[in-house]
Amino acid sequence: MIAHIDRSRALEAFRAYTENYDADNTNIAIKIAHTYRVASISERIAGTISEANVNFAWLLGLLHDIGRFEQVTRYGTFFDALSIDHAELGADILFHDNLFGSFVPQESQEMKAIAETAIRLHNKLSIPENMEEKTAMYTKILRDADKVDIFRVLTEYPYNERYSNLKDLVARDEVMKYVKEHRCVPREASAGRANELEMLIAQCCMAFELEYPESRAIVIEQGYLKKLLEKDSEQLAIVKAEILKALGKTISPHEQGRSYDVTPPGRP
Fold this sequence. Notes:
- The protein has helices at 7-18, 26-46, 54-63, 66-75, 86-96, 100-103, 109-121, 133-154, 159-162, 173-180, 187-190, 196-204, 213-222, 224-229, 234-248.
- The two termini are 35 Å apart.
- It contains 15 helices and no strands.
């Protein structure tokens, strides 16, 4: 059973936690804004699924990147491969260090178990096929919401500067094959020798594995992914055609033209 969630209490607990970190640091500020937006997007996706509790989905969004604040403070980077798996770190902080109780003091064991699994798996390439149905649903909602807002993050400072000049770069065939297969690019294929074009392609390919129609609708309507794909690169043009082909298969006319308010509560 999903316990009652007091959003005001949860927001206050999140703000109290993040006050331990320097909000003037660009990386910290980015993650605070990202957190609020993922919470809101999670709620919206859950609102289209009859079995989902929108308040719990919202809470998962609020908690999903708790590990990022400690990661960037300890290691000075958001690259998991160069530091630590932020999802595992966040789940350890929440559930091994008992921080979760400050957000939901009357949590049920089922709720706690689902939340820990969803947060640990939100950044993984895939989730186990044999997951319990309810746990899988909330995990997929959270993963979708995170991907949706990452497209926005990549269009804004400082990440937009990383992809300012791509026209002379070439992506390897081993990266482009995942585009043709409509799959996410595994970290091992985009790491090490990856250039900025390959990194951007890998991030855009997250759109292929969005689970829910509402997630795909938000991506199209917000336009951030389209903005990324319109950068000057022949290979990105191929990626764009394949992604739009994939999204077009699942977006129905009634899902188009809707607006989404994802303004962080209490933030400009």
